């Protein structure tokens, strides 16, 4: 009988992006907007982000345990991370990278590209709504709440369960996706996942790993084996970064 869940599930945040670099520059200068002309979906990796993705691939190749399924967000930075990972031995060179739109970045709507100060300046009502509702439930006009991301990830995990039972699966996506996947898989509460978030950002190309445990529940389940591991970069002497994504107000 095919197991319900993958044998191993790795969830990886993309490498450092040009958006991460621009966000840092905006924050340090006190700017209200992040200096980017690309759509969020089109923001590429930085040079360092490409190095991080290469280190990730070499680390998996050195471990001798590689995914046989790779799923990735359609955003350019996630696609590039997956491609560089594959090119550096992280998986079979002929392995197809399966794009799944449900893994896309959380959408910020009218707040996209604004720093925390920019939200307070241009959208004070939204800043107040977010303060009252909290980041888990606040949905900016045209954007998503964490709950909205969770809705689509529940569907994504149904697909993984249906098609990839017993396989070794890697997901390449974004910081909020990594956290929301933990929320769903581990059946966490709002307070629990936000406490994990407050401990620090998910590192670029950091690895979160789940292993199938046949003794977990009636049909077995995925058990957390490692969270936010940056060993691939450390072992390859590649700088570790853990910046929030495009908008400063994504954290709080």
| Strand line-up across the major sheet | 3-2-4-1-5-6
The count of β-strands is 6
CATH homologous superfamily classification: Phosphoglycerate mutase-like
| Count of alpha/pi helices | 9
Largest sheet: 6 strands, mixed
Q: What is the structural class?
A: alpha/beta
Global shape: globular
Task: Spell the H/E element sequence.
Answer: EHHEHEHHHEHHEEH
CATH class: Alpha Beta
Number of domains: 1
CATH topology name, in short, is: Rossmann fold
Sheet-strand content, in percent, reads: 5-15%
Low-confidence segments, ≥5 residues, pLDDT <50? 247-252
Task: Walk me through what this model shows.
- The chain is an alpha/beta fold.
- It has one domain (8-250): Rossmann fold, CATH 3.40.50.1240.
- 40% of the residues lie in helices and 14% in strands.
- The protein has nine helices and six strands, in the order E-H-H-E-H-E-H-H-H-E-H-H-E-E-H.
- A six-stranded mixed sheet has the order 3-2-4-1-5-6, sandwiched between helices.
- A hairpin with a 7-residue loop joins strand 5 and strand 6.
- The longest helix is centred in the middle third of the chain and has 18 residues, at 146-163.
- The relative contact order is 0.22.
Secondary-structure topology with pairs:
Blueprint: E1 8-13, H1 18-29, H2 47-63, E2 69-72, H3 76-87, E3 97-99, H4 116-122, H5 124-133, H6 146-163, E4 168-173, H7 175-185, H8 190-198, E5 207-213, E6 221-229, H9 231-235
Parallel strand pairs: 1-4, 2-3, 2-4
Antiparallel strand pairs: 1-5, 5-6
Helix pairs in contact: 2-3, 4-5, 6-7, 7-8
């Amino acid at each position: 009988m095919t197991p319900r869940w993958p044998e191993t599930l790795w969830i990886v945040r993309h490498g450092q992006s040009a958006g991460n670099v621009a966000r840092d520059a905006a924050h340090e200068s006190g700017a209200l907007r992040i200096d980017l002309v690309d759509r969020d979906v089109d923001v590429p990796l930085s040079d360092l982000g490409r190095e991080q993705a290469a280190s990730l691939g070499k680390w998996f190749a050195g471990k001798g345990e590689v995914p046989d399924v790779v799923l990735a967000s359609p955003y350019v930075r996630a696609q590039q991370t997956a491609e560089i990972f594959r090119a550096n031995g992280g998986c079979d060179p002929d392995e197809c990278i399966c794009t799944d739109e449900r893994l896309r970045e959380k959408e910020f709507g009218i707040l996209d590209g604004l720093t925390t100060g920019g939200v307070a300046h241009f959208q004070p009502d939204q800043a107040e709504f977010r303060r009252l509702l909290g980041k888990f439930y606040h949905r900016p006009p045209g954007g998503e709440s964490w709950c909205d991301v969770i809705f689509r990830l529940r569907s994504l995990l149904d697909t993984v369960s249906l098609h990839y039972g017993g396989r070794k699966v890697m997901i390449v996506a974004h910081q909020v996706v990594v956290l929301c996947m933990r929320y769903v898989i581990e059946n966490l509460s709002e307070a629990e996942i936000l406490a994990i978030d407050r401990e620090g950002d998910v590192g670029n190309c950091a690895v979160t790993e789940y292993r199938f445990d046949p003794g977990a529940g009636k049909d077995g389940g995925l058990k957390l084996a490692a969270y936010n591991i940056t060993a691939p970069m450390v072992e390859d002497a590649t700088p570790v970064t853990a910046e929030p994504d495009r908008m400063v107000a994504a954290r709080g």
